[in-house]
Amino acid sequence: MTSRVPAHLLDPFLAAADATAAERPEVDLEVARELMAEAAGMLHDGLVLDDLDGHDLPLVVAALASDLVAPDPGAAMRAREAAVAADEGRFHDPDLVRGAYLVAISTLRL
Q: 35-91: per-residue pLDDT in tens?
């Protein structure tokens, strides 16, 4: 990683790696943490989440971290992006949230 990823972005990704390694014995903790840190770094370096406000950002970060440890991360992220419209009132800017999910999918090549 070429930049330092802020804790508010990195920590949820590392927590998802930790939880996954604890739940699934076939998952190597250090590898999972390294991969999740790399994903957080790619999203940070790509400015993928920079336009989200203080309300939407933690919701999206938590969702992305959760989706990346799903059996099919791409499908999980696409389903979440499609469901944003149904979550009326949850997000301050649903269009920006949907866009962030789509750019994240592309950035992470899912």
A: 999 999 999 999 999 999 999 999 999 999 999 999 999 999 999 999 998 887 899
CA dist list (Å): 107 to 30, 51, 86, 88, 101? 23, 16, 25, 26, 10
- Chain length of the chain: 110
Using CA atoms, how far apart are residues 3 and 42, in angstroms rounded to an integer? 10
**Could you tell me if 63 and 80 are in contact, meaning their C-beta atoms sit under 8 angstroms apart?**
yes
Residue 85: CA count within 13 A, CB half-sphere: 4
Query: Mind listing the pLDDT tens digit for each residue in 77-103?
Result: 999 999 998 887 899 999 999 999 999
pTM of the model: 0.92
CA 7 to mean position of chain CA atoms: 13
In angstroms, the CA 90 to CA 63 distance is 13
Rounding to the nearest 10 degrees, give the CA dihedral for residues 29, 104, 51, 99: -140
